Task: structure prediction
Amino acid sequence: MTVTITTAGEPAAGGADGTYDVTVVGAGVVGTAIARELAGYRLRTALVDASDDIGSGTSKANTAILHTGFDAVPDSLEARLVREGHHRLTAYAARTGIPVERVGALLVAWDADQLALLPRLLAKAGRNGYHAARIIGADELEKREPHLGPGALGALEVPDESIICPWTTPLAFATQAVRAGVHLHLNCRVLDVADEPGVHALTTSRGMLRTRYLVNAAGLYADEIDRLLGHEVFTVTPRRGQLIVFDKLARELVGHILLPVPTAAGKGVLVAPTVFGNVLLGPTSEELDDRTATGSTADGLHLLRERGRRILPALIDEEVTAVYAGLRAATGQEDYRIQEYPTQRYVAVGGIRSTGLTASMAIAAHVTGLLARTGLELGAPRRLPPVTVPNLGEAFPRPYRRADLIAKDPAYGTLVCHCEHVTLGEIRDALSSTVPPRSLDGLRRRTRAHGGRCQGFYCGAAVRALFEEAQE
Amino acid sequence: MTRIERTVDVLIVGAGPAGLAAGAELAAAGAGRIEILEREQEPGGIPRHCHHSGFGGRFTRGGMDGPAYARRSAAAAVRAGAGLRTGVTVTGWAGPRTVETTGPGGLERITAGAVVLATGARERPRSARLVPGSRPPGVHTTGELQQAVHLYGQRIGTRAVVIGDEPVAHAAVDTLRAAGVHVVAVVTDRPAAPLRVRQRLPLLTGATVTGLTGRTRLSGVSLRHDDGRTTTLRCDTVVFTGDFVPDHELARRGGITLDPGTRGPAYDAAYRTSRPGVFAVGNLLHAVERAGVAADEGRAVAVSVLHRLSGTDEPFGGGRPLVVDAPLRWVAPNLTGPGGARPLGDRFVLRTARRLSRPLLVVSQDGRELHRQRLLLPAVPGRPFHLAAGWLDRVDPHGSPVRITAL
Ligand SMILES: Cc1cc2nc3c(=O)[nH]c(=O)nc-3n(C[C@H](O)[C@H](O)[C@H](O)COP(=O)(O)OP(=O)(O)OC[C@H]3O[C@@H](n4cnc5c(N)ncnc54)[C@H](O)[C@@H]3O)c2cc1C
Ligand SMILES: Cc1cc2nc3c(=O)[nH]c(=O)nc-3n(C[C@H](O)[C@H](O)[C@H](O)COP(=O)(O)OP(=O)(O)OC[C@H]3O[C@@H](n4cnc5c(N)ncnc54)[C@H](O)[C@@H]3O)c2cc1C
Result:
């Protein structure tokens, strides 16, 4: 199958009549997962995104936890899709090389009130179909997490909560979809949707695109697309989460995902390892009205450091590698807003707030089912071409540690980014991959180059030179 | 995973001024097989991309630009007989004096009679300084800027703000100007220095960076002045300078004790670290000194390494830690010993967090005063000042840590 990725010109190239069977708006982790699922059928599918890369919205800036769904609202759609998504993505990651580490979570009780809540949380986990959780006492907690701050009274242990690579997950989905024939149109913002007989005519920033079926996975802008189709069901209120990434040298301070006992205000600030070998502190939870406000603030960082000092005092003395913020697409309802409209041949996938990475594959299967109910003829399923993503996980052999790879190609023994041990071979591979990066940031998400503790002091110019060379 | 196993007499990690000088000295002294490993493709360390004069040893101060100095240092090491391998990174430890490496030739495990760490230092980037705001392109450190301009000829931007007022900030200004970038301001949170010789710099004192703005490209740097006023400087480039931190990853991964002040390995006058047979020199110990100082340390460590190789070194651990009281930030070396050994140039290096006009430095142990010394010049942040080491023989080897206070 030929690979079609376009970044300029008319986006329509959907077969003889120029009409796609299905178009997915939004190439975040949810949209790419849906496109990948649809690629499993003989359909002409388009995936369009306003930005110049896949996964560059909310999907690039989360806490990267593969949730079990133990604490979801029981019987909600989210609870079901998170649980199912956890299983699907775990298996998919094993097939494609997306790094996942089953480190487990500890929901730490810091006072008597919180301790008293643990049995209720355990029971809730049971109602969510999760039965491996258990309550542990202060002694065992201290043994498990010796660097924890003073005063922890006990914890709920959730052994299957895992950490995952947030960047190679949508990359794997998009790569597989595109290799299976899905057209990916970037820099392609959907501006308007008009109703023609049997067809949606999308006005995009690059011209017209026609499609029989439409999936709206536009994340923070899903309500706007929804309105273009005449619906006034929900409004996205961005809920910002700021995070601090600590140096890899802090990794040994923490073994599990350390969660606070949830309050009415949300899930609260956690400390978690990352698959890249760092430690994450965050996120904050701030209701905003600006959907582009992905900056950090002095107050936010101050609050995080205060919380972090309590949870893991030694962490605060470690060097900070990065600070970032993501926006959750909250809609004022504690559940996803996934809705099919048969007469419109349209499915809205809104309100995928804080669990979308985990649930992505289950959402994709669910949405595909809804499309079929809406009248789309899926036909017989077909096998997708296998994909393998580059391993960015510190717990798995990275190229710089692989004698076999280096023997075949010395470029895998040539380090360019020293903090993250990224080799020339990996950078070249990323630059010539199926879905290549279109910015230094995109390259960083595919390789980690330039993303380490020195933030480019050593490698910045060299990485930019390699990137620019590839653009010529 | 197959690794080639090798042994050498002395392994030096890092081919900057410190590592190269150590290699040259040890090879000239006939210390056996000396190998210097450098992860960059070219040897020389930071001076490789410092295209300004101001480099040279004690006798040629001011003479050379960085690249010439780097070339000369590397050539001297090779001429003396040291093995120099570039493009080879030490990635970790496999034993007390055994390291693991990655290079285009494959993976190795190298065991040495003595290891000298000379891994240098880097500037803290914007993130580590917790400067809030958006994350647009256009944000650099001096190291990145110099490489971009001098090694790669890359385009930088049009209007730049430089954060910091140490010598390195001035190097950044020169580099920006050489690249045709207009320098809007050099910003420092320090108060205006009295009697300061004015340079050709648009210097803004008493101002703290409160945030960066811009989406696809940096558009401004927001500041808060000491009097409470706030402003935003319009620019497309910002360079965070100074604020150095030792590149201590390897030292830490090897379980080597760090000094809480310098954040480099704790070390004594013989450059010994807490791990027997592992020495440390250069900016790894005290970020940041001039290249000549780093090279002097490289030469000086050779004596200690030779003692180690011939089994005539004194056991580690006899020394007392040196501690400083605020506003002093650190002292280097930060351990006494071995025996009555004196540090390089018979003096200790100190840093302060805040400007002190002609401070009185008092050295004491267990309440007993060992030494007092009035400085003739003010001590300012970001620049070294010195304390004579003549009091070392009065230190009680069984007493508490030695305390240094500025009055
Ligand atoms: C701080 C934080 C922490 C989180 N932690 C976790 C976690 O630990 N585990 C977990 O599972 N989930 C987590 N999440 C949630 C997860 O990140 C999101 O649910 C998920 O990324 C949503 O993906 P998406 O594809 O719906 O949205 P996005 O990634 O935002 O993708 C939407 C895409 O639509 C495009 N788009 C928008 N409008 C248009 C238009 N008009 N035309 C064309 N394209 C358009 C955008 O460019 C964007 O690329 C977290 C989220 C945040 C903010
Ligand atoms: C912008 C700037 C301007 C300066 N201007 C002057 C000046 O005008 N005059 C002056 O005298 N001094 C100047 N200096 C200071 C001078 O450059 C330093 O003092 C000197 O480079 C320190 O030498 P070093 O050997 O300790 O470290 P470095 O020069 O930093 O060398 C360390 C080397 O170790 C290598 N390394 C690190 N880790 C590993 C590893 N794991 N494996 C293999 N190799 C590794 C690094 O790649 C590097 O090459 C300046 C510094 C800067 C940053």
